[in-house]
UniProtKB/TrEMBL annotation:
EC number(s) from the headed UniProt entry: 6.3.2.17
SUPFAM superfamilies, alphabetized: MurD-like peptide ligases, catalytic domain
Name used for this protein in its record: Tetrahydrofolate synthase
Biological source species: Opuntia streptacantha
NCBIfam families in UniProt: folC
Length: 359
């Protein structure tokens, strides 16, 4: 889930528009009844490959859009290395209704002579991934999560325990690329598998940023708003499956607990439906006093739920995970709840800024 089209293409807006229209015009000029203009994702895939080629990048990281085997990105015949992250039940209408079927689609990105890596998976997923690797005769590495002590005093910048799993896979893929280019020996001792990560790896892992993933945005409610004055804290995450929602809820609960322990904030222990103005919930604000000082705080979690997903399944996972933690949180939703796409937060913040400017 991206906040803007060029988010993962590190080029200027001017260059992006130049490549966009160049690619668009070339495709449009060759449209036939049998070969119409491609859908958005396929178009962006073609444009991305054009950008990588024209800009002569040293390395291109290609992320599939949906599945793998039949994805529009899966046209690279000789990738340097392939990786599969943690799998869950998602896009079942296209990929299949079992984890084994989904894993089989994901493993469709594997190619002959290209090493593959994955992280610990449930048995049915791991069996399907292993089967594909064996069919191609390629090595499959199962990567362990990184540990706090691997960071030599630094911290992983992306929040959430699950990010240690992703970080471990990222390190394995980068090592494989260095091996392919003949540069691994410059950074890693051949036999010392327990050595600290090189400084370049540590800098990358401790500074990586991804908007809309375990992101906290602080803002204040403007005086001109009809909401009580106080602090707004937005928690943004692109969680869109039961598994990712569980990870999101664990992160959110921990963030709420940390905030509670570091401020005077004291959340109301309540769960409301239908009305955000329910008197029992005090508009969702906790209230704490210290002498004459009082502070209102509203913590808001935004996640991703498109039409093809069941919001009630995601919400149940959110409620269950938060309830099992020691954090006290308020959850608000209306009947017929449908979460907005994650980048809707951009418009919320812009609206708050406009209100502040006019006050």
């Amino acid at each position: 889930m991206s906040l803007e089209l060029k988010e993962r293409l590190d080029i200027s807006e001017e260059k992006f528009l130049q490549y966009f229209w160049d690619c668009w015009n070339q495709l449009r000029d060759n449209v036939t009844e049998e070969l119409p203009m491609p859908p958005l994702f396929q178009f962006l895939t073609v444009m991305a490959f054009q950008i990588f080629t024209c800009e002569k990048v040293d390395v291109a990281i290609i992320e599939v859009g949906l599945g793998g085997r039949r994805d529009s990105t899966n046209v690279i015949k000789e990738p340097v290395v392939c990786g599969i992250t943690s799998l869950g039940m998602d896009h079942t209408d296209v990929l299949g209704d079992t984890l084994e079927k989904i894993a089989s689609h994901k493993a469709g990105i594997f190619k002959p002579n290209a090493p593959a890596f994955t992280v610990p998976q449930l048995p049915e997923a791991m069996d399907a991934i292993n089967e594909r690797a064996q069919q191609l005769g390629i090595p499959l590495g199962v990567v362990s999560p990184l540990r706090c002590e691997d960071f030599n005093g630094l911290q992983l910048s992306l929040a959430g325990d699950h990010q240690f799993i992703n970080a471990g896979l990222a390190v394995a893929l980068c090592k494989s690329w260095l091996q392919h280019t003949g540069n691994r020996g410059k950074l890693f001792a051949k036999e010392d598998h327990k050595a600290h990560l090189p400084d370049a790896f540590l800098r990358g892992l401790s500074s990586a940023r991804l908007s809309g993933r375990a992101q906290i945005v602080n803002d204040s409610i403007p005086k001109c708003s009809n909401i009580a004055s106080g602090d707004l804290i937005f928690h943004l995450d692109g969680a869109h499956s039961p598994e990712s929602m569980k990870a999101c809820a664990k992160w959110f609960s921990e963030a709420v607990k940390q905030h509670k322990n570091s401020t005077l904030w004291s959340p109301v222990n309540s769960f409301c439906t239908n009305q955000l103005t329910d008197a029992h919930c005090q508009n969702g604000f906790g209230h704490a006093e210290n002498g004459n000082h009082s502070k209102n705080v509203k913590q808001i979690l935004l996640f991703n739920c498109m039409d093809v997903r069941n919001p009630h399944v995601l919400l149940q996972q959110l409620i269950t995970t938060c309830a099992s933690s020691a954090a006290t949180v308020n959850l608000f939703f209306a009947d017929g709840y449908e979460a907005e796409l994650i980048y809707s937060i951009t418009f919320i913040l812009k609206n708050l800024q406009c209100l502040r400017s006019s006050s």
